[in-house]
Amino acid sequence: MVRNILITGGAGFIGSHLVRLFVNKYKNYRIINLDNLTYAGNLANLKDVENSPNYVFEKADICDFSAIQSVFDKYAIDSVIHLAAESHVDRSITDPFAFAQTNVIGTLSLLQTARTAWKSFENKLFYHVSTDEVYGSLGKEGFFTETTPYSPHSPYSASKASSDHFVRAFHDTYGLPVLVSNCSNNYGPYQFPEKLIPLFINNILHNKALPVYGKGENVRDWLYVIDHARAIDTIFHGGKTGETYNIGGFNEWKNIDLIRLMIRVTDRFLGRREGESEKLITFVTDRAGHDLRYAIDSGKLKNELGWTPSLQFEEGIEKTVEWYLNNTEWLDSVTSGAYQEYYVKMYGNRTQQ
Ligand code: NAD
Ligand code: DAU
């Protein structure tokens, strides 16, 4: 094996697509997927690669410093692609400590392990996967660039901003070779149905209310998850150490317009009259501190490394809706048990029309 790459959070949504891409594309890399399988981590996401000779799974918590040290020793790790995190904004509003613990302390524990385990930094790399939410919220105009000042508003984005700062501090203080990327909203298969798109597809399927926060006027910039994984691959192999790259699809949608599109596509796949499920739309109390608009300028990544998204959004949504409707077993398994409690706590009294 020419590289031993530790991918953290590889059993989650984006991590599982990245693991699959690397395991299949780079047969001479050993991919070590480290994940402690929280509610969002699911090894079923990786069924198709679990027996590949260049893939191993290690169940461990990134906050457990000695467990991480053992994994570094056991596999002679030379590169890290760090995705493990608490990732849902709504959960960060009810339980901010969990976000500080995993996203800040967990990242610090990985950085400190890499710094001490690597006797030389030659041919080593610590790649940190982050979010555009660290930049805060835009008005009607403009884009986030790599030089936009940080202005996080939710406990989630504050914890991710803090982790980004720690990564850069380890580069500036100790010379650790790092890369950071900040990406916009991802969608696609295997996303946990707490996030807008899979939550709403599942609710349309079951004729449940669709809880639209506020007036549905917030804007997000959507990118198909496999295009994010491709971008990470491009940056991992070609990015300049110490640099940051923004990743996004120049694909802004107002929530309510996206929801109406999703309804039409899902109704069509379900054999309902297109638009029939609009009756499920229910405007509910807005998310606290809800950022109005995100929009990423990914020009640096395109101009310097040649990456562009491969999918048009309408095509991506069709593929996504089709995937969830063809994988109802997966949906049913992840929405049983603790999910039901979460759902009632989150939406129980707010989704009646
Ligand atoms: P996810 O919630 O689907 O997956 C997170 C994974 O991390 C899970 O497998 C979970 O088990 C694991 N994990 C959580 N805490 C852990 C711990 N203490 N130790 C080990 N493993 C742990 O998240 P996602 O949407 O795939 O996001 C992955 C990364 O990408 C995150 O860092 C997130 O901030 C970032 N990101 C996400 C998006 C998006 O739209 N989803 C966009 C930009 C950046
Ligand atoms: O921008 C990148 C970020 O995108 C990632 O860093 C986060 O990990 C990821 O969760 C995502 O954050 P958002 O908060 O933008 O995604 P979410 O799917 O939770 O919400 C998308 C929009 O839809 C947002 O404006 C809130 C709204 N929404 C969401 C839910 C869950 C609703 O109106 N109703 C809902 O029930």
Structure description:
The chain is of the alpha/beta class. It has two domains: 3-187 and 223-247, Rossmann fold (3-Layer(aba) Sandwich); 196-219 and 252-288 and 312-344, UDP-galactose 4-epimerase, domain 1 (Alpha-Beta Complex), CATH 3.90.25. Helix content is 42%, strand content 17%. It has helices spanning 13-25, 65-75, 89-94, 96-117, 155-174, 196-205, 225-238, 255-270, 299-305, 313-326, 328-334, 338-347, and strands spanning 3-8, 29-35, 55-59, 79-82, 125-131, 178-183, 185-187, 210-213, 219-224, 244-247, 252-254, 281-284. The longest helix is centred in the N-terminal third of the chain and has 22 residues, at 96-117. It starts with a strand and ends in a 6-residue tail after the last helix. The model has no long low-confidence stretch (mean pLDDT 97). Residues 8-9, 11-15, 35-38, 40-41, 61-63, 83-85, 87, 102, 106, 129-131, 160, 183, 185-186, 192 line the site of nicotinamide-adenine-dinucleotide.
Summarize the structure.
With 353 residues, the protein is an alpha/beta fold.
Helix-strand blueprint:
Blueprint: E1 3-8, H1 13-25, E2 29-35, E3 55-59, H2 65-75, E4 79-82, H3 89-94, H4 96-117, E5 125-131, H5 155-174, E6 178-183, E7 185-187, H6 196-205, E8 210-213, E9 219-224, H7 225-238, E10 244-247, E11 252-254, H8 255-270, E12 281-284, H9 299-305, H10 313-326, H11 328-334, H12 338-347
Parallel strand pairs: 1-2, 1-4, 2-3, 4-5, 5-6, 6-10, 7-9, 8-12
Antiparallel strand pairs: 9-11
The protein binds nicotinamide-adenine-dinucleotide and 2'deoxy-thymidine-5'-diphospho-alpha-D-glucose (DAU).
